[in-house]
Amino acid sequence: MTVLLQTEDLTKRFGGLTAVRGVSFTLSFGEVVGLLGPNGSGKTTLLNMISGAHRATSGQINFEGHPIQNLRPDQISKQGIARTFQLVKVLPTMTVLENTICGLAFGSSRMWGAEAEGKAMEKLHQVGLADKAKQPAATLTYIDSKRLELARALAADPHLLLLDEWLSGLTPEELQEGIKLIKSIRDAGASILIVEHIMSAIRELCPRCIVMNAGEKIADGLTGDVLQQQDVIEAYLGAPHHA
Ligand SMILES: Nc1ncnc2c1ncn2[C@@H]1O[C@H](COP(=O)(O)OP(=O)(O)OP(=O)(O)O)[C@@H](O)[C@H]1O
């Protein structure tokens, strides 16, 4: 399999706190990988370094064979990495369509006017929001604002999609819809790194997963195997107490 993303000994320190310590992993073209770990284990910080929001303290990030660890977020978008955020970020006074067109502006292909509108509408259809294209983003329900973030990320035609807890906060029915939507994106051949706490979703979507604990990678392998590893179970539940 051809490697799409490779991190090598990636570390991020915030003052005295090491949020990510020496993390190395690869993600191949067409792979969907889950990134798990308890709260504060460094998952979002890792995503922030890959997307350029944070500069790595040390280590390397190669994307399609080129180092990207010193690039700005807009440069990384243009290279073909798009993301969604843990706390949804849409532009509330702009319409759903305008928000999606914004994704095109930061993507790898430049597009304007009717062409951009057509492309944005295509992505809104894909996520099930086409009938709300003319509404201000502020009027959307929570799940629809999540769909919009996804449409905006997809509009950039990313080679790699980073999803930061995209499924969190949904009702059980919405969760099933959300999983179905991500499955359809996956089955169309996308490469995706999914940060998620919902184990059922990880099991359904990700054949492979990586687990972090206290900033370090503690497991990387087939999801079914990794979730049975003793150190992974302990990281989530706490080490067993002995009387
Ligand atoms: N900008 C920042 N400045 C200082 N410390 C930070 C910053 N961002 C994250 N941290 C710290 O780094 C550690 C890792 O945080 P991070 O958000 O990456 O964890 P996470 O695994 O994504 O957690 P969660 O599952 O709760 O989202 C935490 O201790 C957090 O407080």
TrEMBL record:
A Pfam family this protein belongs to? Answer: ABC_tran
CDD domains according to UniProt: ABC_Mj1267_LivG_branched
InterPro entries tied to this protein: AAA+_ATPase, ABC_AA/LPS_Transport, ABC_transporter-like_ATP-bd, P-loop_NTPase
Instruction: Give residue ranges for domain ABC transporter.
Output: 5-239
GO MF entry, a single one: ATP binding
**Which UniProt keywords are listed?**
ATP-binding, Nucleotide-binding, Transport
**PANTHER family in the record:** AMINO ACID ABC TRANSPORTER ATP-BINDING PROTEIN (PTHR45772:SF7), CONSERVED COMPONENT OF ABC TRANSPORTER FOR NATURAL AMINO ACIDS-RELATED (PTHR45772)
> What is this protein's record name?
ABC transporter ATP-binding protein
